[in-house]
Amino acid sequence: MTTQEVAARFNELAQQEKWFDIQDEFFADNVRSVDPPHSPYFNYAEGKAAVRQKGEGFVSKIREVHRVYTTLPVIGGNHFSVGRGMDITVEGFGRIKIDQIMLYEVKDGKIVLEQFFY
Questions:
Q1: For labeling, which of 11, 23, 58, 103 is most exposed (least CB within 10 Å)?
Q2: 3-class DSSP state for residue 66?
């Protein structure tokens, strides 16, 4: 699949909030997940299982979803990015609002990097 095809399918699943389906379908075995330095929410994870565990750990702490959205992808070469907004109540943090850019790198039809800017 091309980057454009991956991004289109990613968008379809993201609009349905099917983030673990995205991981199952597109994440490479050696995927890396990078958050900003000193993020209070997440750390670096490498490998499909570790990235999955990172996501599941966060989702398990969500107590209430007030609003979430994901923008259409913007594609450049073998990368695409989306905007993502979350207004959620999280155990240990209370109500938080995150507006971020999520950047993905695609290689051989698989996502090999996700990086978050917030």
A1: 58
A2: strand
Give the other-Cβ count within 10 Å of 1's Cβ.
14
- The 10s digit of each residue's pLDDT in 84-100 is 999 999 999 999 999 99
Q: Is 27 helix (H, G, I), strand (E, B) or coil?
A: strand
Q: Which helix (H) or strand (E) holds 4?
A: helix 3-14
What are residue 24's phi and psi, to 5 degrees? -60, -40
Q: Which residues contact 104 (CB under 8 A, 6 or more apart)?
A: 6, 7, 10, 79, 80, 81, 111, 113, 114, 115
> Domain 3-117 belongs to what topology?
Nuclear Transport Factor 2; Chain: A, (3.10.450)
Q: Which amino acid is at 112?
A: V
How far from 38 is each of 34, 73, 83, 92, CA to CA, in Å?
Answer: 11, 27, 21, 17
**Bridge partners, residue 79, by sequence:** 76, 105
3 state SS of 97:
strand
Note the pLDDT tens digit of each residue in 25-43. Answer: 999 999 999 999 988 888 8
